[in-house]
């Protein structure tokens, strides 16, 4: 076994590999970009090497820099993780040339599976079932059209060089074929520099079922059974589970044997995944991923094996730890991928600081694989996945219930996340009934992507409580009252009929509200709401938890403050309440876009406008250095600069107001 390995990756997979290495007594070397110098994977490793600037091309994708780091630290082997250089045959060859073991398959196997058409030809010869289709060398348009007619419409045109759904085109009828072919070729050329295509019968409601295989260098190949990864969004997996619901032992054996034959046909060694699409009891080879996959944890859960340990053993020349007949399925596991992305902006990555991060408690049934901690940033440079939540239970029903329970404990503030979508999937009757196929999210979009309901009075009360307490603390710090928690200590409170009252202008989503709180001498308050006043008593229960009694009902929820925003979590569901400066112009006066905020923490390099400047949408206002790169902060709309709120050299928080704009008159 190796005594020291280098992990050529970052984030959760680097952390996950380091944990297993440590358990096996193997020393670990992390590599990092300048943006990751204090990242979790670096903190976890025994040693680390800075290999370049934030852009992956100059760091995590740089073969010479990674090999230099391996040489400098004396690492005997390199684990590539997934993504980055994990399926790069040149990297595997460069490792060999440098005398370092690549913890992955032989370069020839990576190459053989790299071209879709060539892989299909190989698989056909190995007896692996293929979707009826054409993957020949002759790319003449008439030959392709004749093949499509022979296959039968609808057909799917795919880029031969492609993968992951890029450059695919569905053709419904023969008279649409020529136009679709031209478009598909153009896309393939642009994306892969190769315009060859293949044609397949189009399956309309397929499931994505993949088989985890493992091979050693002595000719042994086993299947660690299947995963169902049908629930995807734009070819990005969201939910993965094992075993696949409805799989019977006969089909499991047939798919396992086909996958092992696929691996055998290319001389595979190490961890690999053979992807199939399945429809109406049949299954067809799609592609083989020559790496450890993100979703390997569900296979680990149901087999009780550590696949990274298997990778390390196989790469160091050992035989597979188990034979096929020793492998069993125990229970059911589901993984959900938690992403920093904004459902309100079509799931664009949501960059910023993870101001608040509380994962569900881990244990025998719940596993959370992550590479970030509270206070870390999600940047534009890397994948926005925050964590993988993996739940393992005795059967699928129990697993889905436990998953919902774990999701209700997941609290993330500072960036937008897909947690609302994940909760909606876990709660959806079609998911509970295991009605899975690749159209799941699109079909149930209305229920899954519904905007959140307006926050309840408990959420509003908790936000007001947190803000009041902060104002009282500020008043005390300013040397105020003898009793700092007395509402009378509030410099900002108004008095009416012997009671203090205070109006809070807040924005929740796009909507502004005024919350009037009548402060009681006992520290409680009465909150004026459209449906009538609510009597609130509240106390801090530690760690941001507010023990709340609204009218007669008691609840506990968490409310944490970051600048002007109070993030309230109820069963994990986040409501962000932004307290507006009562002296600032209201949103209605800011048709031009109002406050321009720092998207992440950084340093102001330059301010390019001054008060009174007329700006157009897109005018650069401020240059900000964040995560070691310069960002241009631009005007979101035409307007006039009402106030410049930063100066060159300022260190600004995520969400700090840099410039305020007013509509031009
Ligand atoms: C297909 C298909 C239907 N028929 N091939 C998408 C990514 C690539 N790995 C294969 N993909 C598909 N190939 C035929 N002949 C439908 C898909 C597909 C899909 C497959 C797996 C998971 C999600 C998907 C979403 C849309 C389309």
Notes on the structure:
The structure is a single chain. With 665 residues, the chain is an alpha+beta fold. It has six domains: 100 residues, Rossmann fold (3-Layer(aba) Sandwich); 70 residues, ATP-grasp fold, A domain (Dna Ligase, domain 1), CATH 3.30.1490.20; 128 residues, 2-Layer Sandwich (D-amino Acid Aminotransferase, Chain A, domain 1); 113 residues, ATP-grasp fold, B domain (D-amino Acid Aminotransferase, Chain A, domain 1); 123 residues, Glycoprotein, Type 4 Pilin, CATH 3.30.700; 76 residues, OB fold (Dihydrolipoamide Acetyltransferase, E2P) (Beta Barrel), CATH 2.40.50.100. The chain contains 17 helices and 42 strands. The strands form eleven sheets. It has an eight-stranded antiparallel barrel. The longest helix is centred in the last third of the chain and has 21 residues. It is globular, with a radius of gyration of 28 Å. About 1% of the residues have low confidence. The site of ligand MV4 has 16 residues, from strand 9 and strand 16.
């Amino acid at each position: 076994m190796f005594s020291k390995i280098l992990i050529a990756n970052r984030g959760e997979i680097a952390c996950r590999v380091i944990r297993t290495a440590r358990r096996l007594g193997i020393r670990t070397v992390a590599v990092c970009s300048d943006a990751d110098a204090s990242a979790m994977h670096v903190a976890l490793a025994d040693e680390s090497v800075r290999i370049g600037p934030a852009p992956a091309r100059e760091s995590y994708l740089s073969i010479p820099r990674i090999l230099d780091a391996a040489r400098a630290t004396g690492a005997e082997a390199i684990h590539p993780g997934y993504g980055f250089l994990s399926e790069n045959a040149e990297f595997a060859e460069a490792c060999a040339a440098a005398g370092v073991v690549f913890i992955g398959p032989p370069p020839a196997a990576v190459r053989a599976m790299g071209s879709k058409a060539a892989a299909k030809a190989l698989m056909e010869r190995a007896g692996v079932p293929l979707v009826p289709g054409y993957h020949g060398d002759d790319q003449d348009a008439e030959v392709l059209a004749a093949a499509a007619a022979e296959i039968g419409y609808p057909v799917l045109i795919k880029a031969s060089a492609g993968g992951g759904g890029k450059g695919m085109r569905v053709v419904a009828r023969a008279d649409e074929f020529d136009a679709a072919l031209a478009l598909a070729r153009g896309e393939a050329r642009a994306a892969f520099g190769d315009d060859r295509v293949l044609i397949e019968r189009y399956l309309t409601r397929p499931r994505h079922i993949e088989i985890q295989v493992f091979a050693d260098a002595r000719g042994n190949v086993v299947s660690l059974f299947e995963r169902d990864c049908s629930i995807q969004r734009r070819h990005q997996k969201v939910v993965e589970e094992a075993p696949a619901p409805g799989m019977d032992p006969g089909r499991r054996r047939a798919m396992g044997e086909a996958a092992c034959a696929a691996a055998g046909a290319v001389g595979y060694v190490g961890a690999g995944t053979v992807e199939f699409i399945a429809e109406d009891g049949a299954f067809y080879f799609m592609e083989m991923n020559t790496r450890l996959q993100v979703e390997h944890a569900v296979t680990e859960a149901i087999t009780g094996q550590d696949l990274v340990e298997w990778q390390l053993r196989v790469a160091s020349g050992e035989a597979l730890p188990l034979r096929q007949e020793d492998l069993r399925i125990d229970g059911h596991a589901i993984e959900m991928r938690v992403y920093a992305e904004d459902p309100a902006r079509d799931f664009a990555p949501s960059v910023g600081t993870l101001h608040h991060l509380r994962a569900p408690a881990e244990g025998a049934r719940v596993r959370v694989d992550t590479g970030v901690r509270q206070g870390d940033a999600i940047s534009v440079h890397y994948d926005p996945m925050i964590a993988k939540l993996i739940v393992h239970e005795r059967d699928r029903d129990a697993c889905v219930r436990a998953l919902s329970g774990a999701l209700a404990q997941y609290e993330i503030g500072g960036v937008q996340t897909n947690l609302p979508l994940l909760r909606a999937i876990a709660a959806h009757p079609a998911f509970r009934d295991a009605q899975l196929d690749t159209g799941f999210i699109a079909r149930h979009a209305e229920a899954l992507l519904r905007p959140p309901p307006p926050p309840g009075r408990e959420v509003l009360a908790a936000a007001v409580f947190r803000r009041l307490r902060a104002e009282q603390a500020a008043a005390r710090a300013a040397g105020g009252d003898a009793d700092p928690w007395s509402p009378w200590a509030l410099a900002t409170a108004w008095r009416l009929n012997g009671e203090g009252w205070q109006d809070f202008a807040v924005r929740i989503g796009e909507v502004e509200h005024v919350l009037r709180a009548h402060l009681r001498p006992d520290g409680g308050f009465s909150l004026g709401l459209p449906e009538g006043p609510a009597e609130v008593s509240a106390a801090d229960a530690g760690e941001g938890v507010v023990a709340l009694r609204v009218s007669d009902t008691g609840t506990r929820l968490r409310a944490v403050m970051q600048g002007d925003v109070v993030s309230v979590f109820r069963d994990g569901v986040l409501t962000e309440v932004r307290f507006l400066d009562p002296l600032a112009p209201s949103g209605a006066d800011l048709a031009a876009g109002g406050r321009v905020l720092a998207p992440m923490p950084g340093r102001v390099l330059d301010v390019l406008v001054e008060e009174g400047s007329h700006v157009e949408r897109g005018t650069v206002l401020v240059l900000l250095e964040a995560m070691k790169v310069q960002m241009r902060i631009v005007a979101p709309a035409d307007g006039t600069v009402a106030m410049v709120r930063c100066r060159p050299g300022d260190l600004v928080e995520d969400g700090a107001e840099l410039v305020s704009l007013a509509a031009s008159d």
